[in-house]
Design goal:
The chain contains 17 helices and no strands. It is mainly α. It is globular, with a radius of gyration of 22 Å. It starts with a helix and ends in a 23-residue tail after the last helix.
Length: 458
């Protein structure tokens, strides 16, 4: 593991910690504006939280790709990889510098000054060059996860470019034109980073099994093609409330959730195949990925309901939309990424005291995230019912019971932050062991003890 990758891994984990910290503070700033408006108003905290979450997901996916592609392609660190890391990190730090000065711009999810999109674009070009040049020197019949990484890289660049079309005056001449493009590009971009994250998940599953057939199976390729179709089409359910042909709505509804169904099926196959010994050998990596499967079930049920136009009328713009986003971001993507980073850092080889802390952190996150998500769903149901069904127009009256539920959400966020902080702290301990040249540090022979060498190639 190179110094650059160690640094980037630490930076990526810091983004997750910032995501949860800003989100926790933002929840209380929303509930108690009279106090927080003096210091950190909600309008400042929200973009800081959203951008940290966005960059955590993308950086986490890129970290796994940078590490695992070395094993797959047999390549060493390149100058283009270093250029990506330093430009990417410097741009993100600059973005938060502007946020701290209350300097905003851009559009939804990218609320920083638009000129900062240019170095992000350049950094991604460097990452793509590093990946595809390594692939070219490697082999011609790669496993599926290589195709998934490549698809995610290409489509992120395309959707990011599309998202920035508003900077051309013609696109801003029509509000509906610009809004449609924004919602479409951001919806499709989720599919792009999902390809990278699910590709990493498939890679790890194949390594834990010690069997590469799972990455060449018909079911896996079915999952890939459904994922690509989702990437290109499922954004349609983001624009239900905008003027669009019925065909777009119906097609988007038909394909929007099929990707997760096949992902769940692959996880079930993995769970049935993996031996008990291997579960213990890679305990936390296994638990994170399996917990992502649990959240895929929950979010699939919620998303299916949200995709029905008659129900979407009540849920669109309520806290149910936020619950869906949090379930996908924390429950699915973050769990897979924590499993990926844990596999890279060999967290199951940490001393026993650290593994116990990891277990406490994992259980705290699992319970608090469920309460956190459930409170958002209840808040959304209350708001949608009172606004649409009862026809309330007085916002304060409509939000009265909703705010009570949001207090539960805010306090669950505190426990979620504490649990994640415990996990991330021990990940930093693992990074420290890497720096000391002791990635195999284990203190005692418990059932988690690893007696053989892990499968990664340095």
């Amino acid at each position: 593991m190179t110094k650059t990758l160690k640094f980037f891994t630490a930076f990526t984990l810091s983004l997750l910690l910032l995501t949860l910290f800003f989100g926790m503070i933002a929840a209380f700033a929303f509930l108690y504006p009279e106090f927080y408006n003096r210091y950190l108003p909600f309008y400042q905290l929200r973009p800081m939280h959203v951008s940290a979450a966005l960059f955590w997901i993308i950086s986490g996916a890129a970290t796994g790709l940078l590490f695992f592609k070395k094993n797959v392609f047999g390549t060493k660190e390149t100058k283009s990889e270093k250029a990506f890391v330093w430009i990417w990190v410097a741009t993100i730090l600059t973005i938060f510098g502007f946020y701290s000065l209350k300097k905003f711009g851009g559009r939804e999810y990218w609320e920083f000054p638009p000129f900062l999109c240019f170095p992000i674009f350049i950094a991604w070009i460097f990452l793509m060059y590093s990946f595809f040049s390594g692939w070219k020197k490697s082999f011609k019949n790669p496993p599926l996860y290589v195709w998934m990484w490549a698809t995610g890289l290409i489509f992120f660049l395309l959707t990011f470019t599309e998202q920035n079309l508003y900077q051309i005056p013609w696109f801003r001449q029509s509000f509906l034109r610009e809004m449609t493009i924004q919602w479409k590009s951001n919806g499709a971009m989720v599919g792009a980073w999902n390809q990278m994250i699910y590709g990493t998940s498939l890679y790890i599953m194949s390594r834990l099994l010690g069997d590469g057939s799972i990455a060449r199976s018909k079911k896996a390729y079915t999952f890939y093609f459904i994922g690509v179709v989702n990437l290109m089409i499922n954004w349609g359910h983001h624009v239900y409330n905008l003027p669009a042909t019925s065909f777009v709505r119906h097609l988007a509804y038909a394909v929007s959730m099929t990707e997760w169904i096949v992902f769940i099926a692959i996880c079930i196959d993995f769970k049935n195949k993996i031996s008990q010994a291997r579960k213990y050998r890679y305990l936390f990596t296994h638990r994170f990925i399996m917990h992502a499967e649990f959240w895929a079930y929950l979010n699939l049920g919620l998303a299916l309901m949200m995709s029905i136009p008659a129900i979407n009328r009540y849920t669109h713009g309520t806290h149910i939309t936020v619950a869906h986003a949090m379930g996908a971001t924390i429950g699915i993507n973050s769990m897979i990424l924590l499993g990926s980073l844990g596999y890279i850092l060999k967290i199951d080889r940490l001393p026993e005291r650290n593994r116990k802390l990891l277990n406490v952190g994992f259980l705290t996150v699992a319970i608090s995230l469920l309460v956190f998500w459930g409170a958002l769903v209840v808040a959304g149901l209350l708001k949608g019912y009172r606004e649409v069904w009862l026809g309330m127009t007085n916002f304060q009256q409509m939000m009265k019971p909703v705010l009570t539920t949001l207090h539960v959400f805010a306090f669950a966020g505190i426990f979620l932050f504490v649990g994640m902080f415990t996990i991330i702290w021990n990940y930093f301990v693992a990074i420290k062991y890497w720096k000391l040249g002791k990635p195999n540090m284990v203190e005692s022979t418990t059932k988690y003890h690893v007696k053989s060498t892990m499968m990664e190639v340095e």
